[in-house]
Amino acid sequence: MLGTLAEGESRVGGVSDALDVASTADALRALGATIDRDGDDVRVRGRGVASLRPPAASIDCGNSGTTARFTIGVAAALRGETTLTGDASLRRRPMERIAAPLRLAGADIDYLAAEDRLPLRVRGGSLNPIAHRSAVASAQVKSALLLAGVAAGIDVSVEEPVLSRDHTERMLRSMGATVESFERDGFAGVRLSAPAQLSPVQTVLPGDFSSAAFLLAAACIGGGARIALRGVGVNPTRTGLLDVLARMGGDVVVDERREAGGEPVADLHAGPADLVSTRVVGDEAVRLVDELPLLGVLAAHARGETAVSGAAELRAKESDRIHALCTNLRVLGVDVEERPDGFVIRGDERPLSGSVRSFGDHRIAMAFAVLGLRAGSSIEVDDLEVAAVSFPGFLTELARLRESRPIIIGGGAT
Questions:
Q1: 20 is catalytic
Q2: β 41-47/34-38 pair status
Q3: Taking 60 as the threshold, does the pLDDT of residue 406 lie above it?
Q4: φ, ψ for residue 7 (rounded to 5)?
Q5: Cα–Cα distance between 408 and 2 in angstroms, integer?
Q6: Contact 90, 63 (CB under 8 A)
């Protein structure tokens, strides 16, 4: 998206072929962007926001909340009407947290079916400067407003209770934008000064930590294979799972720390471990929000009682992930307590068997597939193909782990 808003050609290597990535590229093409792909390499011919036009047809964002929310931010700066929709899962996810601050800035956003849900229509144009204090820590809210600021050429300030993922801020700085971080009244803030234009980039993306997390967890509970993952992004705003695994006794080693494309990168190694319970609260939950379902299945394997709180945001993901996790664990006979903002799981090392549901959610499906690697366990997930939303190679790597074959993935920065 930033490459499209820049002036000049950006080249990005190491790009995933996940369905969510394809949804973003398709949304940008619908707006008039020129994006070419050759294997893992993507070329974006940026011509600035003036080259973009709302399409006559609706933009289908698939299953990707990131695509929908970021595109709303860009569309708010375009003259004309942009309509967005998505699949059944995405149409259940809240959009008002993006729409409300954009309305205050001057955009006209209407829901076409249910309030706070896709499909919606954006009538954009000139926007006023944005100063928003968010009730939840959300990188999607923050990034959508920053994208609106870039597209509209306005100043943007966003504050949140806890610093969320800062990939967008890092990318903006690397492309010449002035972005400052600050703290006020206990809130973490970021301030964008209206950029004249963004410079194109040539970079290679680090490996996605959220995908790597499933392989790290699988190695810890799988009882056999060791893995080495090269060039994984270890941005501290999203690697809370590494700290949690360390407390649980996980055999995870981080080495060869370096920087690539403005992001911290490292090689990760993991192997079988006897896990113990832990507690996750507040700020730490934000740093591993996408990995909390995975932590839930690790907790079922660990000795003792694991408790997670401050994670109500999980209920507004591709599924209600708190409910989905707890429902599936009960089916398998695990002692679990569902709470409004988290869960309590009393784990042990006995084998688990049963059939569970993905709830149409890639992270729920992958988490229970990982739990099925536990020695003596037999767990059937109704739809593992949904993993392709974020991790197309997951089933292949899972099969290798089942065979207890050592896995080495990646090289360089990818």
A1: no
A2: antiparallel
A3: no
A4: -110, 105
A5: 32
A6: yes
Give, as one character, the DSSP assignment of residue 62. T
pLDDT tens-digit series, residues 18-46: 999 999 999 999 999 999 999 999 999 99
Mode of pairing for the β-strands spanning 178-184 and 59-60: unpaired
User: Quick one: which of 284, 275, 187, 176 has its CA closest to 240?
Assistant: 284
Q: How many residues does the chain have?
A: 414
Q: Which two tokens stand for residue 222?
A: 């799988």
Give the model confidence (pLDDT) of 93-110 as tens digits.
999 999 999 999 999 999
Cβ 267 vs Cβ 228: under 8 Å: yes
Average the pLDDT over 71-87 and give the result. Answer: 97
Residue that has been written with the tokens 């595109």 in this structure: 71
Alpha carbon 144 to its chain centroid, in Å, reads 14
pLDDT at 412: 40
Give the active site residue among 26, 60, 166, 290.
290
Torsion of CA 48, 53, 57, 63, to 10 degrees: 20
**Tokens read off for 246:** 């360390």
The band of 73, judged by pLDDT with boundaries at 50, 70 and 90, is very high
Handedness of CA 120, 21, 131, 192 (dihedral sign): negative
- State residue 400's pLDDT score: 84
The C-alpha torsion from 294 through 299 and 300 to 304, rounded to 10°, is 180
